[in-house]
Amino acid sequence: MKLIAIVLAVAFFVVAVLYWVGMFGGPHVKHGILFAGLGVLALIWLRFQSAAPTRAR
Amino acid sequence: MTFGQAMFLAVLQGVSELFPISSLGHTVLIPALLRWQIDRDSPEFLSFVVALHLGTALALVVFYWATWKGIVGAFVRSVARGRFERTADEKTAWLLVAGTIPVALLGVYFESAVRTLFASPLPVSLFLVANGTIMFLGEHLRRRQHAASDRAYRALESLNWRDGALIGLSQGLALLPGISRSGTSIVAGLLADLDHEAAARFSFLLATPVIFAASVLEVPKLFTASGNTVLTEALAGGVLAGVVAYASVAFLTKYFENNDLRPFGWYCLIVGAACAVLFITKVIA
User: Given A30, A47, A52, which is nearest B217 (Cβ)?
Assistant: First the structure.
């Protein structure tokens, strides 16, 4: 699961950059921000995977 | 666009963005009915609309300030911890994330194309009728669903991420001008077994990041040459839309404590049908 989160985060950030630099028919700022946001969410998912599990009481 | 028309549109935006009657639909229909010659695609008008949306979003943030402080704090703490504590604020925060992703995807990819296709008076009139039908259908299904059991309504925090995503997805219908974003999301909330008050509250919270992000991204347009020509109207309109939106959300949160969507459904059916007749018969070209 950690690997999937990392791959997704990298993929989303790459797509965001590609949108910003105009690789998909001109720059699309909103699309870039959307994918950067998804990248951040993937990193948050990774954070949840990496944190120590809660101990059973 | 005269100053008077601008202020009228600001009031219209402040009311119709939050009442479940479609703000986009009304900004297409009313100028057409009043025979105002407004170029909706001109850079000046788009700059003005940005200011109206920004005013509305700020009004929502101010109205729900204490709630947002709790939600954002709980979100940041859960990310810092890397695990869920399942407090009410934290659950609401993640429900808002789940609800915002689908509508953001749909908005970014389809909004422009859908508006180009349908943002003219006749389709908007028909979508307004559809909006009224959705509200009646939602109320009917909810009553039937609830009549089958005598359980209490669910609390907002008891929704799971699928419910949040579905409510968010329902807002996608509002890309069609004439379909209300708050209307569809309140109906989706009712079908998830929330009461009217909780469904409306979640709808308004869900609207805030979307309206805010969409308008903040467009703020640079206000400071272009075309934006400068309507700066006075934009500033006054933004403030007026914000004040009216604040009053609207205050009214609606009180209204939904004891009332349902049917009056808005009737309004949409009657106004939508009347406008459709006027445009089909070419009484109004």
Answer: A30
Q: Which chain A residue is nearest to residue B215, measuring alpha carbons? A: A30
Please indicate whether, in this complex, the C-beta atoms of A54 and B83 are within 8 angstroms of each other.
Answer: yes
Looking up tokens 């009347």 gives B274
Q: Are B178 and B125 in contact (CB under 8 A)?
A: yes
B98: nearest CA in chain A?
A41
* 3-state class (DSSP) for residue B170: helix
Q: Compute the distance between CA of residue A19 and CA of residue A11 in angstroms, rounded to an integer.
A: 12
Structure tokens, B120: 């003219």
Task: Write down the pTM of the prediction.
Answer: 0.90
Q: Does A54 touch chain B (CB under 8 A)?
A: yes
Amino acid at B31: P
Q: What is the mean pLDDT of each run of 10 residues along chain B (285 residues)?
A: 90 93 90 85 80 92 96 94 89 94 90 84 94 96 81 86 93 92 95 93 93 81 71 90 96 95 96 94 81
Length of chain A: 57
Nearest partner of B52 among B221, B275, B252, judged by Cα: B221
Model ipTM value: 0.83
Domain residue ranges in chain A: 2-50
Q: Do B83 and A41 touch (CB under 8 A)?
A: no
